[in-house]
Amino acid sequence: MNGLSTRVDIALLGIRVDAPVQRRSGAGPSDDGHVLIGGVGAAIPIRSDSPYLVEGNRLLFDGTDTGLEIEPVQRPKFYDLSTADGVSYEQIARLHGSNVLATTVVQTCIRYGEEQRCRFCSIEASLAAGSTIAVKRPDQLAEVAEAAVRLDGVRQLVLTTGTSAGKDRGARHLARCVRAVKAVVPQLPIQVQCEPPGDLSTLAELRAAGADAIGIHVESLDDEVRRRWMPGKATVPLDDYRAAWAEAVRVFGRNQVSTYLLVGLGEDPDELVSGAAELIDMGVYPFVVPFRPLLGTLAVDVDGATAPRADVLADVTVRVAKELRRAGMLGTDQRAGCAACGACSVLRSAGG
Predict the structure, then answer these.
(1) Which of 74, 115, 140, 278 is the most buried (most CB within 10 A)?
(2) Where is the Radical SAM core domain (predicted)?
(3) How many domains does one find in the chain?
């Protein structure tokens, strides 16, 4: 097996490993353990039925050494701390990969009712389980970020949010959180993530607050797929996304704006790659990630959906990576965020 095919395989089939740092449920399309593959951060499903086993930091396939070294990310020191009012730091923000701090600043979403919910999302499941709190105050995030940088060498922060009923769709609370963190750790790069705000001037407010990069996540550029998988978000027209991306590129700069594109929702692979190329031409990084069914989501509990085939994921990823290289846009050139981390995607293994 070559490195790319193995990376694709484990992204879909998972691995058997004791991973102290894991992400269970939440706002995104991942439910993973965090490891280092050859020293590079990766978020890989932990599955007891996987043919891949990590033993002595080596990745074995049915007992045969694949040649890849995998090391579980260790539990960070800041997880052992709590705020003065008794809230665990781990409930406020989590370690992603080896050096990324991430949190959902508002853990509820106006689109979480079953008729509107994104079918791959379980944003409120972690809240119901008690593993997080509903709203993270700016001062709490600043406190946790300072500790994570000081104790665990965190190098970037990702702030996302459930969608609010306000015209800003939650962006203004993100801005307050960014300002608070930057006041304490001004050197820490921050990516914010939100839906296209109703007033695009809000994007400039986020930049002025100190945000270094932004993710405006559409997940699919196919309207039929959007209506089926994201009925609530699909009410926001793609033209609104395009206007927001264009303004975000103007405000944040080329390759400091990104969007998720999920492989496996039923979108034609050629059209997905073509759409990704259009985004790249705009200066937007298409963060191509395999759809993986999460426990607690409608995709599993109602639809019985499955992940994409390995050959489809590999083909799409390789072609999008080629377009990114053509445009001189690499995830590692982003200041902060999902593309800068790269752990949930295979793009970095394909040269993107």
Answers:
(1) 140
(2) 94-323
(3) 1
Q: Which domain holds residue 131?
A: 3-350
- Which residue in 163, 266, 166, 171 sits closest to 224, CA to CA? 266
Residue 320 belongs to domain with CATH number? 3.20.20.70
Radius of gyration of the chain (CA): 19
Supply the DSSP string of 220-256, one letter for each residue.
-S-HHHHHHH-TTGGGS-HHHHHHHHHHHHHHH-TTS
Q: How far apart are CA 124 and CA 213, in angstroms?
A: 25
Residues 232-279: pLDDT tens digits?
999 999 999 999 999 999 999 999 999 999 999 999 999 999 999 999
Q: Between helices 201-209 and 238-252, what is the axis angle to 10°?
A: 40
The CA-based diameter of the chain, rounded to the nearest angstrom, is 56
60 phi/psi in degrees, rounded to 5:
-110, 140
DSSP β-ladder status, 100-104 and 156-160: parallel
Within 10 A of 201 (CB to CB), how many other CB atoms are there?
10
Note the pTM of the prediction, 2 decimals. 0.95
Q: What's the Cα-to-Cα distance from 142 to each of 96, 106, 329, rounded to whole Å?
A: 17, 15, 31
Mean pLDDT of the chain: 93
